[in-house]
Amino acid sequence: MKSCILIPTLIAITSIAHATEESPNKQQTEQIIFKNVDIFNGIENKLFEKHHVLVEGNIIKTISAEEINARSDATVIDGTGKTLTPGFIENHAHLMLMGPNLPAMEADKTWEDFAIHGTRMAKMYLMQGFTTVRDAGGANGGLRRAIDAGEIIGPRYYPSGAFLGTRGGHADFANYSAPVGTETNFGRLNLSQEVDSVAEVKKYARNNFRMGATQLKYMQSGGVVSAFDPWQLLAGSPEEIEAAVAVAESYGSYVMAHSYRKEAILNALDAGVLSIEHGFAFDCEIAEKMNDKGAYITTNLTAFDPGLLDIPAVKNVPSSLAKAKSATETFKNYIPNMKECPVKRGFQTDCVGSVDACNIQIAYEKHLNNEFFGPYESLKTMTSIGGEISKLTGDFTNPYPNAKLGVIETGAYADILLLDGNPLKDFSVVGTGDKWFDAEKRPESPETIRLIMKDGVIYKNTL
Fold first, then answer.
1. C-alpha angle with apex 336: 333 to 340, nearest 5 degrees?
2. Is residue 124 classed as helix, strand or coil in its secondary structure?
3. Which of 61, 96, 229, 286 holds its CA 20 to 30 A away from the CA of 115?
4. 3-state DSSP call for residue 61?
5. Residues 162, 131: contact at Cβ < 8 Å?
6. Residue 7: per-residue pLDDT
């Protein structure tokens, strides 16, 4: 067995084939051993101290309190004093949407602009420790194909295809003066589609799966900074939402719904939606129904930030400021309700903007999770819960069906981080930031994330 310390690097190992399901046998049988690590397994509120982990190919082969015997050519990494965790999972991102606002993207961006931004966002997310990202609208299957083929650097990727929503709803990104039925830039690129009947829902939902979506995103409520839609909007009939669910289920998958107010959330759950996005009006009645139906929620906690009303996109637009003030008052009980009646909650950032701005927002979202819910719940939200959400795509739509994500256990995918400390005691080691809009530019990767492995391939090692 050979022991080595890998050269510190922030670049991908481009000379090694990307370890996907179709990787050649040589890569599948490479062995890497992590020695003397403390393990957070993604599930339990404890560390398993001074353990050893054997990775073979892209799978965790063995976990042991005793030293592991491996082949003489195995690579050994000494993780003494480090915590080994599952790679983080982002459950609500928009990698293709660079901003600075919706009208600019509609009127002044080409497919090259979106593609270049998505490529940069994919690398940024991986370097922040996220080995899996679920895209909540605006991306088709091309970015995933490029990542999985090793052509670009990025996390495992679950795209939703085009946003689906009604005229005047949260998926209506057309210019203000656009007549009904006008072709849009977002429509041409299948970033967003207007659906105003059961037939249209079915047509564009099927097209999303044709274009590489792994699940569907339905815009059921309005928003705050969007142009036409009050956040209180109940968009889409029960029949239309049920149609989206029926199409998703025919592909073995599910629907995630942008839902704010209580009526919207309950309607979505009754229609068979399994992932509630934002869900700011969450309460214990909703929790009971979610638990009965096996549903999940992902919420961007920046919505509860005290400085929300000072964000330029809110403060400088009178209609958005009015919407934000009413929403803040209505949604103020989300956090106490979630603590009283917990449900399975996934990590969500929901950033639309530049790569640098989203890097800052991701770190701040990590920080807020710890501030509101503590380190253990935050870690679980970023790991095993996200792994469960990934499995909702089923066996034949899931692009990564052969092993678990979000956990450190035998037989799971080798998506692994080494952190410089104990995140259950010092959550900052996951790469948090305590400022949002006035924060300085963040480094490409947090110093405290010492190693990033995805699918058995090491993309960063500064040990």
1. 130
2. helix
3. 229
4. strand
5. no
6. 37
Residue type, 79: G
State the pLDDT at residue 1: 52
Q: Check if the beta carbon of residue 42 is closer than 8 Å to that of residue 408.
A: yes
Instruction: For strands 31-39 and 83-86, give the pairing.
Output: parallel
- The 10 Å Cβ neighbour count of residue 99 is 17
Collapsing DSSP to helix, strand or coil, 27 comes out as helix
Largest separation between any pair of C-alpha atoms in the chain = 69
β pairing state of 59-64 and 75-78: unpaired
H-helix segments, 189-341? 198-210, 238-250, 262-271, 284-293, 312-315, 318-330, 334-340
324-346 confidence digits (pLDDT tens): 888 888 889 999 999 999 999 99
pTM: 0.93
Q: 369 is written with which tokens?
A: 């999770």
Checking 331-336 for CB contacts under 8 A at 24+ apart, the result is 331/260, 331/280, 331/281, 331/303, 331/304, 333/283, 334/279, 334/280, 334/281, 334/282, 334/299, 334/304, 335/304, 335/372
Question: Tokens representing 126?
Answer: 């991986």
4 or 254: whose pLDDT is higher? 254
Q: Are strands 296-299 and 275-278 parallel, antiparallel or unpaired?
A: parallel
pLDDT higher than 50, residue 14? no
Whole-number Å distance between alpha carbons of 106 and 110: 9
Tell me whether the omega of the peptide bond preceding residue 100 falls within 30 degrees of 0, making it cis. Answer: yes
Tell me phi and psi for residue 106, to 5 degrees.
-70, -40
Q: Nearest CA to 131 among 381, 378, 386, 370? A: 386
Half-sphere exposure (Cβ direction) of 400: Cα atoms closer than 13 Å: 32
